[in-house]
Amino acid sequence: MGRHALASRRRVSPAVGATVLASTAVFFAVGGSAAELSSGQAAKSVIEGDVASGLQVVTPVRSKFSSAPSEEDSGMSVVSLQAASRSHYRVVPVAVVPRFLPVGVAPERGLQVRTILTARAVSAAFPEIHQIGGVRPDALRWHPDGLALDVMIPNPSSAEGIALGNAIVAYALKNADRFGLQDAIWRGTYYTPSGPQSGGYGHYDHVHLTTTGGGYPTGGEVYLR
């Protein structure tokens, strides 16, 4: 048997190559789920209402995938497979990336889960804030029980400081359901989701935020925007 005969038997036809690639695409699109790629128990999401509202949903990318993904493509993990035609690629979405809230400036030891969510959200929304107090001794139970935060305002008596404190109170009230917000205190006014009450409440250098707590973390929580 000659060398040409052996070489011809070892060739793989274009049709066979396309079939192998198509089978691989089916594996990624159907068989390979995001759950199979992770290990351990699924983390708990700390968010009020529909969990999907805390996810960043990315639209599938175009059929042609360049070496420099566009801004809308960059948030999605993709697998690109070359089809029989050299000019086309299939892009198979692997997972949707949730928008996690990182640890903020508040010490979280002793805080309850909704208080942690509030602290992280305020840190992410207001990078001007460099100090948030949490658990500390107090005659009332809010701080010792991990239910309250003191959001310290830079230059609190200045026009900029007052505007920043007002913005934080408005942000907390807007997200009252999600944060489990019980009240906010700022510049002599006591705010609740049902309305403000003016009086001698103090708090001229920081915004005080109280939550309903939600229990102490167990280590498997995931905090979403």
Q: How is this structure best described in words?
A:
The chain folds into two domains: 3-31 and 57-95, no CATH class; 113-223, 2-Layer Sandwich (Muramoyl-pentapeptide Carboxypeptidase, domain 2), CATH 3.30.1380. A hairpin with a 2-residue loop joins β6 (181-186) and β7. The chain has a six-stranded antiparallel β-sheet with strand order 4-5-9-6-7-8. A two-stranded parallel sheet has the order 1-10. A two-stranded antiparallel ribbon has the order 2-3. It is built from six helices and ten strands, in the order αααβββαββααβββββ. The model is unreliable at 3-43 and 47-85 (pLDDT under 50). The chain is α+β, with helices and mostly antiparallel strands and 225 residues long. The chain has helices at residues 3-10, 14-31, 34-37, 113-125, 159-174, 176-179, and strands at residues 44-46, 77-82, 89-95, 132-133, 148-152, 181-186, 189-192, 195-198, 206-211, 221-223. This is ARB-07466-like C-terminal domain-containing protein. Residues 109-201 form the ARB-07466-like C-terminal domain. InterPro entries: ARB_07466-like_C (IPR058593).
